[in-house]
Amino acid sequence: MKASAFAYARAASVVNALELLATHGDKAKVLSGGQSLMPAMNLRLISPELVVDIGELAELRGIAVKGDLLTMGALTRHVDVLKSPEIAAHAPLLREAISHVAHLAIRNRGTLGGSLAQADPASELPACMVTLDATIVVRGLRGERRIPANEFFTGIYETALSPQELLVAVELPVARKGATHFFHEFARRHGDYAIVGLAAQAIVRGGQLADLRLGFFAVGDRPLLAGAAGKLINVAVTPEILANASAVLSEELAPQEDQQATPAMRRHLAQVLLSRCVSTLLSRSDLRVGASA
Fold it and tell me: Is 293 contained in some domain?
């Protein structure tokens, strides 16, 4: 199947792109790397009347660190994030997650902003942004908005971005001293959509979790910043405490059933990931449950 007929415009600047979006509204779609948009169009899941190509806008590329803030342009490619020394030093969780995004050919073309705007609940990057307390920077003709990542993703393929706005950048607080992370996903094959995944960031002091953020994906209609983390902070974690946090997590999840897994299977796998995460962060094998995968 191929996409239905559409008009094409290559934006000469961000302002030009915004003018096109303001004129055509929800009848237009933005093309950056094309790795999410074009398959959806070819399957006729979406049929825009106009495709606005922003792929040549150099002002939306790049990674920079200023003080305690790491900024990434929306057109920064996955491969650029993977190779960036700034990301390796200040957001290593993101670097690890990127290696799980699809396959090399897609990472070479796909963009950070495109992945976030697509808001696939099984995608790694939205969960990472929630975990890392990112701010999504969007721009319209009337100015910019800064939206916390946990408020940006609103449903399956839905965000707080209006049809007249463009996602232009992502801002991350640099990792605090002593920060550590955990990332793992269950998938049929490396590069396939995750069945369940977890991106976590933590501070460990004196054998306890002084801070913990758990971003689950593929467990609902958007990434989940799990409140169960609060049960594990500033306490001596025992198997009983971990089991209690696991039960709280199960109540938070709202997994969908599809060809890959039932809701019950996703809940179980999420709980396995939680135990592996805590066990890994605290270097304690007595907290680890679930078969190896």
Answer: no
Burial class for 71, CB neighbours closer than 10 Å (0-12, 13-18, 19+): middle
Q: Are residues 110 and 141 in the same domain?
A: yes
Q: Which of 123, 148, 173 is the last residue of a domain?
A: 173
Domain that includes residue 268, residue range: 180-287
Q: Could you tell me the pTM of the whole model?
A: 0.92
Burial class (CB in 10 A: 0-12, 13-18, 19+), 155: exposed
> How far apart are the C-alpha atoms of 228 and 209, rounded to whole Å?
13
Q: Are strands 50-53 and 63-66 parallel, antiparallel or unpaired?
A: unpaired
| 123-143: b (≥16 Cβ within 10 Å) or e | bbbbbbbbbbbbbbbbbbeee
* CATH number of the domain encompassing residue 94: 3.30.465.10
Q: Which two tokens stand for residue 31?
A: 């093309």
Going by pLDDT thresholds of 50, 70 and 90, the confidence category of residue 100 is confident
Q: What is the pLDDT of residue 190?
A: 77
- Residue corresponding to tokens 């953020």: 213
Residue 104 has pLDDT above 80, yes or no: no
- The tally of domains found in the chain comes to 3
CA distances from 209 to 39, 202, 268, 275, 279 (A): 42, 7, 23, 14, 11
On whether the CB atoms of residues 98 and 118 are closer than 8 A, the answer is no
* Cβ atoms 284, 209 nearer than 8 A: no
Residues 6+ apart with CB under 8 A from 274: 198, 214, 226, 228, 242, 245, 246, 249
Secondary structure (H, E, C), 162-224: CCCCEEEEEEEECCCCCEEEEEEEECCCCCCCCCEEEEEEEEEECCEEEEEEEEEECCCCCCE
Q: Does 141 lie in the same domain as 193?
A: no
